[in-house]
Design goal:
Elements lengths: L1 E5 L11 H15 L3 E6 L8 E4 L2 E5 L6 H11 L8 E6 L6 H4 L5 E5 L7 H4 L4 H15 L6 E3 L2 H9 L5 E3 L3 E2 L14 E5 L8 H13 L5 E5 L5 H5 L5 E5 L3 H10 L2 E4 L8 H8 L3 E5 L4 H7 L3 E3 L3 H15 L13 E2 H16 L6
Parallel strand pairs: 1-2, 1-5, 2-4, 5-6, 6-7, 7-8, 9-16, 10-11, 10-13, 11-12, 13-14, 14-15
Antiparallel strand pairs: 3-4
Helix pairs in contact: 1-13, 7-12
Length: about 350
């Protein structure tokens, strides 16, 4: 099959996130199976306009905002003549609206999450109000007859509420190779992994640790990630350590040695950090919000009301059991191997698109 995927970023983009990791892992496997894969995405500093990575043909043009119009122009000039069998419109808040300009080829949407409350954490008023109540609802309604895939029941329900008619869940993925599990820190330690940005609410995690300390828990927190809030949070006290961006090996070392992970996002598509921590032997306490209410229970974690006081109470109540084991013991969360994700996503894509050709 010849498959075109439109996404605003690719795995080499400096601001790539979990959606880009998902895309790359899945498309790499499809390419290994003999399919011809093209990924159209925004231009990235230092990367050529055309490049093949892990069997995926990358076409780059446009910026964060103009990539959508560039994709349409590229399709009219070149894409429609390639002979694609299926087009995937990967939605990161704003869809490419492929179904409006792709003719004669099935279009499927891939949506990890909707933004909703995130608008008020990422952009200023009054744009946030317009985005939350006008732009995003309009964009999603335009997809109401486009079959869609998403990674959690929370996201599925949000998309159905937005007017989409057919939304199917595909699994979230994780590396499944064994990890060397190491001894926990001697001092009770929480960890936060992710962008230190408003929509991830790392300040809530730090505040919760501070509240737990007021109740006699000698707890510290390590922040793994970069973002606008880094310096402010690092100044909250000696019990807060902002590590910034670190290697995957260092991140896994910190998460494995920590006693608990705090996940305080506004919302997630799924929340892969929860499964990654479980695999490294660390339980998560997470907010009861879309996405996390799927991934946290699946990993054996603890869901709490979305406020620092609730996290602090969970820390105080469970600290003895969280620090009782001296050696990490990993377990499986709700995510599955990338091979399984690629297989199930491919099968689902074909089924819901009603593709009739040979594979």
């Amino acid at each position: 099959m010849r498959i075109l995927v439109c996404n605003w970023r690719d795995i080499t983009h400096p601001a790539h996130g979990g959606a880009e990791v998902y895309t790359h892992e899945v498309l790499t496997r499809w390419a290994q199976w003999g399919h011809e894969i093209t990924l159209f995405c925004a231009a990235s500093t230092g990367r050529p306009a055309n490049e093949t990575i892990d069997g995926i043909d990358h076409v780059r043009a446009g910026s964060k905002y103009s990539v959508y119009s560039q994709a349409r122009q590229w399709w009219r000039k070149q894409g429609q003549h390639v002979g694609f069998d299926i087009v995937i419109d990967q939605v990161n808040t704003r869809p490419f609206a492929c179904h409006k300009w792709v003719t004669g080829v099935p279009v499927v949407a891939l949506v990890h999450q909707v933004a909703r409350e995130v608008w008020f954490k990422e952009v200023m008023l009054p744009i946030a109000v317009a985005g939350r109540f006008m732009m995003e609802p309009y964009w999603l309604r335009s997809l109401r007859y486009v079959p869609a895939m998403t990674v959690s029941e929370s996201s599925r329900q949000s998309l159905l509420d937005a007017g989409l008619q057919k939304v199917v869940i595909v699994p979230e993925g994780i590396e499944n190779e064994s990890k060397v599990l190491i001894k926990k820190y001697e001092r009770p330690t929480a960890v936060f992994v992710g962008r230190l940005a408003a929509n991830k609410r790392p300040d809530h995690a730090v505040a919760a640790v501070g509240l737990a300390r007021q109740q006699g828990i000698d707890l510290r927190i390590k922040l793994v990630g970069e973002g606008d809030l880094k310096e402010e949070l690092a100044d909250r006290g000696s019990h807060v350590e902002a590590l910034g961006f670190v290697s995957a090996q260092k991140r896994d070392d910190v998460v494995s040695r920590a006693h608990v992970q705090l996940v305080t996002s506004v919302r997630e598509g799924w929340g892969l950090v929860v499964d990654e921590a479980a695999r490294l032997g660390t339980k998560s306490i997470g907010y009861d919000v879309p996405g996390l209410r799927d991934s946290v229970p699946a990993s054996g974690g603890i869901l709490v009301e979305p406020r620092p006081e609730a996290v602090a109470q969970a820390l105080v109540t469970n600290m003895t059991s969280l620090t009782n084991k001296s050696t990490a013991q990993g377990w499986q969360g709700g995510a599955v191997s990338w091979d399984t994700v690629a297989e199930k996503t491919f099968t689902t894509m074909k089924k819901i698109s009603h593709y009739k050709g040979d594979v």
